[in-house]
Structures
1.
Amino acid sequence: MERRCIDDDQTGDLRMNAMVLAAGKGTRLHTLTESLPKPMLPVAGKPVILHILEWLRRYQVRQVAINLHHRPEVIREYFGNGAGFGLELAYSEEPELLGTAGGVKAMADFFDDPFVVVYGDVLTDLDLGALLTFHRTRGDLLHATLAIDLRPDAAQCGVVVTDADDRIRKFIEKPRRTDIRSLWVNSGVMVFDRALLEWIPANRGCDFGRDIFPDWLRRGLPLFGWRLPAASYLIDMGTPEKLEQANREWPLRLQSTGNKQEGGTNRQ
């Protein structure tokens, strides 16, 4: 796969760093991920994770941590230390999967305050600056903000229920259809205050959706939901069908916007 440098853009300096969660095995993608980690699957001729890094770079996010598990050498060899892409990359290799939250906890010393976390199979052009502004205007309370997306079929997602002040009051990971009380779901893009890392257990696997968010809500730690605007594009590459959909839609967005970094026509 050809290596491509990231074009610079001046879409605002967020003065924060980020982590891309890239350690998942991608089992639902079957043979497509036998020789490649899921974030290296191509969309519009580039690995998904390169699209993510381009998106972060547009907001002047330069320092990015990436956790690895399945075929870690593929990502390391493609990106190296990130210098060729105008980035500073740090890697965290997980011989045993730590889960989404455990993977972030393992890189605790890397982060500024606040920091962004992106699932490594998410393709989006959402306005990261608007998300960060929302996060910073929630007051001085220690908190996290989840970009939430409206999904007609929310059963395979982390469903969130918010109040009139956009505070998340309930989080249900992959609920039964009879338990669904909202069609707003965790999109896989999140902003955290760094001190929240103290509330993630160390040295064991744990997931944000299954373990950490429900625990934080029980403890009264504030979580907020920032609703994606209807014009934003966001899709995850969790299945072959979604990967095919992204490959149809992303190039159309490139053509319609004239922006070679962005893509998308619908949010799914």
2.
Amino acid sequence: MRFHIEGGARLQGTYVPQGAKNEALQIIAAALLTAEPVEIQNLPDIRDVARQLELVAYLGASVERLDSHRVRIQAKDLEPRRLLLPEGRELFRSIRGSVLIAGPLLARCGEAYLPRPGGDKIGRRRLDTHLLGLMQLGATLSYEAKTETFHLAAPKRLRGRFLLLEEASVTGTANLLMAAALAEGETVLYHAACEPYIQQLGRFLRDLGVPIEGLGTNRLHVQGQQSLGGATHRLLPDVIEIGSVIGLAAMTQSALRIAPVPVEHLGPILHPFSRLGIPVSVEGETLAVDPPVIYQPDTLYEGEVLQISDHTWPGTPPDLLSVLLVVATQAAGHVLIHQKMFESRLFFVDRLIEMGAQVVLCDPHRALVIGLGRRAPLRGIRMSSPDIRAGMALLIAALSAEGPSLIEQADQIERGYERLHERLGALGAVIHREGD
């Protein structure tokens, strides 16, 4: 699938962000913890979510689409062993978020099978936090080399205990939080991730009947239950998409509004843009972005290179760095982008260099951007999308560039962003979608 883009258009209007992709993948997996019906609202209509729904249905859950953004899931009977079949392994490997079913299946069914997961090819993404934590709760682990599949087994109920996580992994925290929901006694997760989507998962589990304390901190106390009820859950707007649209406004010199937004969770999103010299005002549940023509990075002294690096929440999210790198190409100053959490996510800078950006890839984790300060606009080229976030960053670059661009493998972008050609087109962007 391709995007044909004509760059240089100024955009205007209000952009409505989709429901959060990462939260959606967690809540869909958490629906497997209960035999009662669960309704999920504000669900993004994107490929990764569709695959996660397909996966839980394959395992035996009933999945009813109420409309394009609402779904009802009821997991009365589950068959974890279906993941041993070739089609089950292929479905599991088609999406990185599939690993989130491990905790629910293990806690509910006493076993879980984990073929090596798929998703973006952005370096190693280890499962240590997931597997070690589940083993400490009482699971045994084996590995079949022929099918590249992990088998977790807990014939008896998991037992709660104090867990010091290997790292503040978001998906690792989510998996252990879900497993603890049905474990015997109290589980304490220390060094837990505290992203908004983990907080939302915790609230959803509370609605199912699980007492949880410490949401929003790195220490969670979970009182496991014998069984859980049903609930209705509404997803937050996607903060990464909100950050992407702020970057788009800056690069295209467009005054845009974004609404509704979860203001209480936007600090780590707005801060790096403020450091780049791009102010964003908050009006109730609306963001107003009116970027200056020339934006100057905020440094302590003249000649200093601004450094932007990713951190665990409430630091700058790693999923936003690709967009920030593109925005830095037109800043009036130098910016060092440091991607600490993945070693191959900056390789898309080759396309930006071909477009006329001045970027030095120092190593797999760092890129020095020599901001052009609008002295030389980017130019349109033919390129391909390597992953969701880099693809969105390249789309922003193409929309700001002079002349036409072609983005191949745009289906990678659509794994995480809903109907971009229509939603951005409504603001004045010229994007034509070709193929499926």
3.
Amino acid sequence: ANVVHSLQRLGRWNGEATTLPLPAAPGGLSTAVLVQTPAGGPILAAAAN
């Protein structure tokens, strides 16, 4: 099962190419990144390692 242990805002995206720092996941855990519109709106993109 994929369980979310925490959420962390990495920054804001304005539609242009950008690089954001991504902290390493604690041992044994993976990371997922979601790009979401404001106010809990639709998710525009997602990636995981």
